[in-house]
Structures are given as C-alpha cells and as structure tokens.
Design the sequence.
C-alpha cells in the first residue's frame, strides 16, 4: 500500500537529543528496503504560491494556503504492507522528534 508522508515542522519539538536519528541513515535504510519510493525536501514556505479559481477568476497568493506555525518541509512516498509498517517507518524518521509526520494512504491505489 502506498502512503504519502508529509514532513512538517512543529512549534513544540522533542528537546531530548538522546539517540537522535540521522536522516541520511533513515533514507539509505528505507531506500534499500524498497519502502521509500521517492522523497524530497521542499523550498521554504515563502517560495509557495497558492492557486485558486473563484467564479472563473484565477487568484494567486504568495506563500502557503494556511497561516500556521506548522509548515510542510518535505515529503516521502512510502510502499508499506499496511498502516502499522508505515507508522514504524515514520517513527524512525528524525522529524518524528523534531517536527511531525502525517501519513495518508493514496486513494484508489489499494491492492
């Protein structure tokens, strides 16, 4: 099953530096196991453009759609047997401690 994992900042990160995971190790391990299909860090939220169409008119806004303290800073496309495996993959990601990760199954792509 494919999951999109949004990598987000969090205004209240874990402050315990004990056994902090290394992102390069996480990427290499999950790439080698075939669980990480694709992923990337994103440009800063200040580089975002929000696109809307209302009553046929194109509306463009600089910056992200929502003004929050949490910002999406990256993504990973995962291939996991089920949600439990996806949670274990996310749990080992460094941003599970420094930020937050949102897992969403891709609609319509279930086996």
Sequence:
């Amino acid at each position: 099953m494919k999951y999109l994992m949004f990598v987000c900042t969090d205004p209240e990160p874990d402050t315990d530096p004990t056994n902090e995971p290394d992102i390069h190790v996480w990427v290499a391990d999950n790439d080698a196991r075939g669980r990480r299909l694709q992923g990337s860090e994103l440009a800063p939220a200040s580089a975002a453009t929000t696109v809307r169409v209302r009553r046929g008119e194109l509306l463009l806004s600089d910056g992200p759609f929502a003004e929050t303290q949490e910002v999406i800073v990256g993504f990973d496309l995962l291939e996991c047997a089920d949600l439990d495996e996806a949670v274990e993959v996310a749990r080992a990601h460094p941003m599970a401690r420094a930020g937050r990760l949102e897992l969403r199954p891709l609609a319509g792509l279930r086996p």
The two ends are 7 Å apart (CA to CA). Strands lie at 2-9, 36-41, 49-54, 57-62, 72-79, 99-105. The chain has a mean pLDDT of 90. Residues 32 and 96 are 21 Å apart (CA to CA).
